[in-house]
Every structure is written in C-alpha cells, then in structure tokens.
Amino acid sequence: MLNTPKALTIAGSDSGGGAGIQADLKTFQELGAYGMSVITAITAQNTLGVQGIHPVPVEMVMKQLKSIEDDLRPEALKTGMLFSAEIIEAVAAHLRKHGWKNVVVDPVMIAKGGADLLQEDAVEALKKHLIPLATILTPNIPEAERLTGKSICSRKGREDAAKLLHELGARMIVIKGGHLTLDKAPVDLFYDGEHMHELQGRRVDTPQTHGTGCTFAAAIAAELALGKTPLHAVHTAKTFIQEAISHPLHIGSGHGPTNHWAYRRNQA
Ligand SMILES: Nc1ncnc2c1ncn2[C@@H]1O[C@H](COP(=O)(O)OP(=O)(O)O)[C@@H](O)[C@H]1O
Ligand SMILES: Cc1ncc(COP(=O)(O)OP(=O)(O)O)c(N)n1
Q1: What atom in ligand 2 is closest to the CA of residue 23?
Q2: Is the distance from CB of 193 to CB of 169 less than 8 angstroms?
Q3: Which residue numbers delimit the Pyridoxamine kinase/Phosphomethylpyrimidine kinase domain (predicted)?
C-alpha cells in the first residue's frame, strides 16, 4: 500500500486566503502532500491589511495537535504565525516530547501591512524553545535582524546571520531575499550548517506578494514530507514561489495573493 505523505501547518488563519493556513494547505495540495492544520489564531484579513486578530486558547491549540498526534502523524510540518510565547512554548514542548521530524519554522512577525502577528515578548520564546527544533528556519531579512540583534546590509551580513541562527540551534537556515532593495534579484541564501547555497530568483515588480513567505515555507515542508532532501526541497520551493509570483491572480485591491496553481500548471 502506498504511504500518502502528510504535511501539517501550525499557523494562523487568513480570511483572505493568501497567507497563513490557507496558503499552506493550497501549497501542500499542489505539491502532492495531504494537508492538515492546527490553527493558532484567527485573523480578519484581506489584501488591504489585517483588521482583527483572535488568538485560539492554548488548550485548543494543544487539542488539535493531540488529535493529529494520535491518528495522523505528519512526515513534515511547518510553523507560521504562533502569536504568543504561551503558544510557542506549548507547541515546542509537544514537538520535542513526541520527536516530530522535518520541522520548518517560518518565524512570522509582521504582516506586509504592518500588523503584529507575534507579540513582542514571544521573540525570546521563539529563540529559546522553537528555533532549536527547526530542521529549516526561514526568516526574511527583518526577521533575521530581529532574531540576531544585528542589522543586515550586505551579503556577508546575511551569511553571518545564518551562522548565528545555526548557533541558536536551527539545523539549516534560508535567509530570504524578498526584502532586498528593488534593484536586486531576490536571491535567497541557504545555509546547510556547512555550506552556503544561493537560491537564484528573478524579481517581479508587483504588489501581488501577499503570503510569499508562508507559501515558500509550506513548499519546503511539502517536499520534505515527500522524502526529498533539504537542498532539493528549498530549490523546489524557490521555483514554486517564483512561478506563483510571476502569474498573479489580480484578486483584491491591495497586496494580492500569489498563484498557487502556477507551478503545477507549468510542470504539466
Ligand atoms: N517581488 C518578488 N519577486 C520574486 N521573488 C520574490 C519577490 N518578493 C519575494 N520573493 C521571494 O519570495 C519568497 C519569500 O520572501 P520574502 O518576501 O523575503 O518573505 P516574507 O513574505 O516572509 O516577507 C523568497 O523566496 C523571496 O526571494
Ligand atoms: C495568518 C497569517 N499568517 C502569516 C502572515 C504573513 O505572511 P507572509 O507570507 O509573511 O506574507 P505577508 O504578510 O508578508 O504578505 C499573514 N499575513 N497572516
């Protein structure tokens, strides 16, 4: 009997469907993994911004995790918006206790429109409890700066940040390049603990980039669930997000979502 690869997202819900749980599940589906979710917060959100956040009580987050643990253990998982130190500590304790493997940590902090998706005091919890469990950590540049306490202004700065995050316990790190200046190609840097690899990209000049980070991390988790190596997984994720940004859907009047169908359509 074939073993269906299962991927789990532990993240917030985006009512607009472009980021969070919704983006993750679409990505899992497109890459051939069976998607499951543990919802940590409900956001009222659209392409114009975040209008409200309602965290899920930590007991209910843990119930969702237990339901999955008892019956549907995933081959890989990703974390996104975790919102509070309390949720981070509880999720990390569960992953540690049950020895869940292939953990992709997207250290979501701030939405494109500026809304805080992580409480200020939760950053330390992220560093102390979750980052040491990360198989692959995927900060954007501002997140890498916040986690390391160092500003990043050069390629060397990104390499140093990756090494510092490795010292914090993450096995591998992708420092994403979406926030580089507009004249620069969005090259992501993948550090496997020994070597730096470049994930080449072509900048698309578009406001339709809502959920790029979520989609990228979810694609890595899906590939790990399918049994691909981390290097293969990050390369596929880069191609997936490049296709998704390059074929926008033109939905909403603000930062529109990316196109999760584009990758599979182009493979066909
Ligand atoms: N305008 C763009 N054109 C092409 N790729 C992009 C663009 N913006 C972001 N990316 C890519 O999307 C992924 C997510 O990057 P980033 O925007 O840095 O993360 P986040 O959404 O977490 O802020 C990365 O692979 C990055 O290189
Ligand atoms: C519920 C939820 N989770 C995460 C995000 C942030 O997603 P990201 O992929 O970093 O995309 P942008 O917010 O930068 O568009 C979110 N907005 N909502």
Answers
A1: 9
A2: no
A3: 14-259
